[in-house]
Amino acid sequence: MNKRYLVMGGIIVAFAIATIFLLKKNPKPPVFPAPVENPKAKGPVDAPIEIIEFSDFQCPACGFAIPIIQQVMDQFPGSIRFIYYHYPLPGHRSAPLAHQAAECAARQNKFWPMHDMLYKEQRQWSKVENPSKLILTYGREIGLDGKRFIQCLTDEETAQTITDEQQQGEVLLVRSTPTFFINRQRFVGAGELLDKGAAFIRQELGLDPLPVLPVEPQTQKTPASTTDH
Amino acid sequence: MNRFVKWIDLFLRLFIGLVFLYSGLTKLTEPIENFYGVLRQYQLLPSVLIPVIAHVIPWIEFIFGLFLFLGYMTRLSSGVLTLMTLSFVALLGFSKLAGGELPLECGCFGQGSMIHLTPMQVILLDIFNFFGGVKLLLTADHLFSFDRWARKGGK
Questions:
Q1: What is the reported pLDDT for B115?
Q2: Is residue A29, in this structure, part of any structural domain at all?
Q3: A8: which of A71, A183, B137, B150 is 20 to 30 A away, CA to CA?
Q4: CA torsion through residues B87, B92, B96, B101, sign
Q5: Is any Cβ of chain B less than 8 angstroms from the Cβ of A127?
Q6: Residue B102 has pLDDT above 70, yes or no
Q7: Which of B34, B66, B113, B116 best tests the A interface by mutation, with the highest count of A CBs <10 A?
Q8: Chain A residues touching residue B66 (CB < 8 angstroms)
Q9: Residue B112 near residue A173 (C-beta atoms within 8 A)
Q10: Which range marks the domain in which residue A133 is found?
Q11: Closest by Cβ to B29, choosing from A12, A20, A176
């Protein structure tokens, strides 16, 4: 192999690397103002850790993530502000209605009961052709004002709130759910949240890292994330 | 006939090169955490290896895809990419055999790309790429390649 041939190879590689660095994107969420009254947030407003979750009610991986999120929140009591963002995936037929229902519940300060209900009953409502009846039942069960709830389910302004949040996710290159931003750092999937996210929180809080424990075989298989295609 | 085979080789080289080039490019320009999420869907991969794989694989795809496309180190590039193709098929196959559910979308082209393939479609593409890669590996001379140009002394 002659020298000129190798130099040409080096130029090709250098050009390739430069192209990647020019095109590389990793947008981070802006520092959102923290409204005190956010029905889709939990935890103290002045918590040092902010977790934003982009999630889809019809995505099984998001349902599996709930106990993991709770586990992480329980590890750092009082230190986390958790905020939910709507991110209905295009392939999920019933997701828009579920998100609308959750946003309507939020307007009656019952977002979290509806959130929990939708994930608990996900297998049920996501399988039927038209889940409207089931969604209305869930609204009744969590004590929503039925009339307001029904009106809200077709309200365009409510739908726009969901679209706005979804668009924020698209700008941030959210490709699958659940995607988390912990103090603006991205973690994709519940597994990443548990493994790296928790370690990152410890680091952010100035705590010592936990000792590495031997890895045990996985007993329950859970999907890590659901892609949007 | 020989001429016809050369044109087939050219098509294979450009096609396989472009597949890997695009696959690497889309992964490298996206946030790497998105690719971590894709790799985590394959439960056979140990989680400690995920960051290493996520950092290394896209660069190999991109650089050797570009090399193959340009016909630079054509045989080495086709050899490397053929081995990678084999490892992808093995990962998908073993994941399926181990009883794990394959993801709905393989994530092979990066999640922000225009191409979205199911694992089954990817296996078919990989089989094509494998045989195409072997054919390129066994071919010494390639039309419109950097290697040919260099062999002729850059004329």
A1: 72
A2: no
A3: B137
A4: positive
A5: no
A6: no
A7: B34
A8: 12, 16
A9: yes
A10: 41-206
A11: A20
